[in-house]
What we know:
By secondary structure, the protein is mostly helical. It starts with 6 loop residues before the first helix and ends in an 18-residue tail after the last helix. Helices cover about 65% and strands about 0% of the residues.
Amino acid sequence: MTNHITPEDKNWIWPKVQNSGVWEAFLALRNEEELKLFFRDLMTEKELQEFDMRWGIAKMLDSGMTFAQIEAKTGISPITITRINKWLKEGCGGYRMMIDRLKKERYTWVGFSRSSTIFFFL
Length: 122
């Protein structure tokens, strides 16, 4: 078993999830309020928190925080941080694309803590 993300690891899922039209629904969302309404109906609280946590960890890694700093700040296990870092560095490029795009736009990341899975944007 390899430690690197293979093309198969990156792409095996797509044939299994593209039949429902969910991508078209995502792309049709017009604003943050619509996104919140749709995502809340679509996902459980735990799934929303998981997405939020992964995105926050990716941004912390991008900002130069160490695994130990992230673990101390969030309580997230080193295994999870390592997995997110692996996809940030070797994945499909989605984390990188969005981090770079948001850096160029008006969004500023303020913080994340174990007691709150909410990210604040200015």
